[in-house]
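Batch job 17 of 40 flagged for manual review because the log was empty.
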Amino acid sequence: MPSPLEWFLSRFSADIGIDLGTANTLVVVRGQGIVTAEPSVVAVKRGTNRVLLDGLAVGDRAKEMLGKTPGNIVAIRPMKDGVIADFEITEAMLRYFIRKACPRSWIAPRVVIAIPSGITAVEKRAVINSAERAGARKVYLIQEPMAAGIGVGLPILGAAGSLIVDIGGGTTEVAVMSLAALVTAESLRIAGDEMDEAIIQHMRKTYNLLIGEQTAEKVKIAIGSAWALEQEERLEVKGRDLKEGLPRKTIITSEEIREALLDPIRAITGAIRSVLERTPPELAADLVDEGIVLCGGGALLRGIDRVIAEEIRLPVRVADDPLTAVARGTGQILERLHMLRDVLDAAED
């Protein structure tokens, strides 16, 4: 039970949940739902950690600057592979998102933050310190697969096994859950960013064309797939010619992009197979009927559910609104914070 002081403070503070992702940060306010969903990007003065325009160059505005900044400005993604790569910039980014989520609150909020299942104790402490310095009164951590499972409605508190695969920007989280705990899990640092990098390398090797991260992401969304399409597609891509150094455009096909994405997709299916091989047989038996639930931005890649079903030979479904699954999970935890303390304690150990 909370102390009388904590109970009083909780009545007047805006508790928030944060899906602190490598690619995007989503913020949930208790009682309001998702209030912010912006890229995890910050623009700063080169050689300093000073955020431009008093914090306005964070999120959507900063992402527009990626690869387009003049010499004195740099757009930074402070999260790498699901963990903090730049402590000060992450703190500035969190402060921006917390203030944006609860601009009129006079009491610092309690914050639930989703973290990858495979991060170290030092990395956990970095997340907690960043959030506290950014203005949080109390910080709770929850493992991303658990938050995603809660967000998509899996029976994580029951004894039956559930398997979730959360394909984010920096990490792919694979976990079998039962009785409010992760039974077996793997945090693979191959996800959406590596898919984008595979497309960049394909354009470089095949067409001698250099493209940026944003262009690669647009290609992935527009014509990317993991399974053969009923009608294959073509797309015009613009970049810089590596030989002549001049702008150029070319036409690419969905077939070649699918081929370029083979390695990261194989790594993801390999992680799922590894987790299943370490799952107790009684829980594995539950998954024969319940199957696998996909969430995260990578779950939107066309045909990835069919590839996983073909490789793993289990039913696979993509969660409704997979991009917001983790954030929605943190929101549900805020509503039942004391009922779900066991889930939070497991992440904080």
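Reviewer: the log was empty due to a logging misconfiguration, but the result itself is present. The radius of gyration is 21 Å. Unflagging and moving on to job 18.
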